Batch of 3 targets.
Target 1
Amino acid sequence: MKFLLVFDFDHTIIDENSDTWIVKCAPERKLPNGLRNSYQPGHWTEYMGRVFVYLGDNGVKEDEMKRTMTTIPFTAGMIDLLGFIGKNKELFDCIIVSDSNTVFIDWILKAADFHKVFDEVFTNPAAFSSTGYLTVQHFHAHHCAKCPKNLCKRKVLKEFLDKQLERGVSYTQIVYIGDGGNDLCPVMFLKKNDIAMPRQGYTLEKKISQLAQSLSPVQCSVLVWSSATDIMSYLKLLIKE
C-alpha cells in the first residue's frame, strides 16, 4: 500500500510566494500603486494577469523571468526531503496542488531536478503568448464558497483520489503539507487516519487551532512543522511501521 503526499508550493516547497517574487523583474523592482491596489479578495489570478501585462509592457522577457524565478530559495530542509521522497517513490505518490502557475512551478522544479519526484501538478495553467507576454488562467470552476474563484483544493484532491480508485489505487494514508488559508478546505476533507502538516506560524496552523477552540476540530491528525526535516522524520517513521 502506498502513501499519498500532497504539497502546497508557495511558502511550503519554496520559502517565498512565487507570484510576488516575479515583481523583482519589474522596473525598480516594484509595481505602480494603482496596479498594486487593484487586487480584489478571491481574484488573485486576475490580478496576476494584470501584473504579467505590466511586465510585458515594460519589455520583461521570458528568459529574465526564468532567471529570476530559479533564484527562489527552497524552504529549510526541503531539498533533503524531496531527495528522500525521490529515493522512495515505490512507497509514495506525490502531487502538488497550488495557486501558483504551471510555468513558475515547472521552471523551479526542473532547475533543481525535482520534477520527477511529483506524479502530478495541479495549478493555474500559464503560457507565453505569441507576443511574449505571460498569461494565466483559472485552474477550474467550482461551487465552494470557502475558496478563491479559480481553485478549490478539496475538489482537486477528491477528483484525484476518485481517478486513482478507478485505476485500482487507494492510499494507506494521505499526508497534506501546506501553509495557507486555502489549504484548510482540503484538510477538512481528510479522514481520521490521514495527517495534516501545517507550517508553524502560518495561516493554516492558526485556522486549524481556531477550529479546535470552537470545538469543531478537523478529523485528521495534525502535526506542525517548521523545517522540512520535521516532515522527513515523520515519513521515516511511517515507512518503518
Target 2
Amino acid sequence: PLISGSRSSKTFKPKKNIPEGSHQYELLKHAEATLGSGNLRQAVMLPEGEDLNEWIAVNTVDFFNQINMLYGTITEFCTEASCPLMSAGPRYEYHWADGTNIKKPIKCSAPKYIDYLMTWVQDQLDDETLFPSKIGVPFPKNFMSVAKTILKRLFRVYAHIYHQHFDSVMRLQEEAHLNTSFKHFIFFVQEFNLIDRRELAPLQELIEKLGSKDR
C-alpha cells in the first residue's frame, strides 16, 4: 500500500545535493527566490556578476532533480510492456548510446532508456572534473558542450512523459507541477541557446503555447 505523501518524495535516482554553504548553494537559493516571483523569463537570466558555467551547472543539477522526481511519480506506468520503445509520440523514437560503454545506438524500452540516461547524467554530475563543487576549481573547457548534451537528453524524458504518460500525470494531479518545471526548463535553454531547435520538435506546439502565454 502507498503510504500517503510517499509518492511525491519518491525519486527515480538519488537526489543530487548541492553542498550547503557553498556558492552554488547560494545560487540555487537565488534561483528559487526569483522563481517564487513567478516571472520565469527573468528567473532564468544570469544573475549580475555571476559565472555563466556555474549558473548553468547549478540549474542543470536542479533540472536533473526535478525530472527525477517527476519521472519517479510515473515509473509504475512506464514499463517494458507499456513502452517497449523510447518514444515521444509516433514520429520520434530515441536509441541509446553514451559514446563510451555503448557506442552504437541501441533500441531499448523507455524505462531502460531513461534508466541509462539518468544514470549517465548522474555520472556526469558526480564527476568533479566536469562539475567542480569546490570553490575556485575551474570548469573544464568542454563544460558547455557537456551541459548541452545533458540538457538535450533530459528534454527527452519530458517529451516521453508528455507524449506517453500525460493521462497518468493528470490522474495524479501532477500536471501543474510538470508544466511549471518544463516551462522553467524551456525558458532556461532558450535564454542560453542550449538545445538545438530540431531536438525540441517533439514538443514544439507546447513550447509555443508556453511562450505565448508569457509575453
Target 3
Amino acid sequence: PLRSNNNPYASFGATLARDEEQNLWSTPHDVTHTEADDDRVLYNMIVVRNQLDTDSEEWQKLNYDIYTLRQTRKEVRSRWKHILEDLGFQKEADSLLSVTKLSIISDSQNMGKAREILLKLSEETNIFPTSWELSERYLFVLDRLIALDAADEFFRMASVVYPKRPSGERADDSQKATQR
C-alpha cells in the first residue's frame, strides 16, 4: 500500500538548497542579507550559474566567483566584528552587524555622518578589500554606532588595526621605517 512519507528530514536537502539561494550575504541560513545592490549582483550570478551545465567551464568560473565574493564578505564582516569586540561590544557584535530587510535608519540626520565615516573607512583604512564596492549594509551598522556614540572610536580603531598602506608596501616594511 502507498503510505505518506512522514520522514521530517525528507525535504531537508531541498530546504538547504532554497535557503542557500535566498541567502545572498555570506553563509546559508544567514538572515542578515538585505536586498542591496551587492546582494542583487550575487543573486544574478547564482541564477546564471544555475542555468548552466555543471560540467561547463562557465559554471566552474561562476561558482568560483560566487564563492570568492562570499568569502570576501565573510572576511569584511569578521574585521568589523573584531573591532566591535575590541571596543567592548563582545555580546552585541552580532546584533550590531545584523542587517535585514526590516532594518531602519534610527535617525535620518545620522545618515550623512554614516556615509562620511563609511567613505573615510574605505579611503583611509584597509577594513575593506581594494576591489570592494561600498556596501549599504554597513551604513546601518554605522548608524547604530553613531546612536551608541561609538562611530568615531570605531573609525580610530579601524585606522590602527587596518591601516591603509601605500600599494606594494608590506606591514613589516612600514614597521622598519618607524623604527629608524
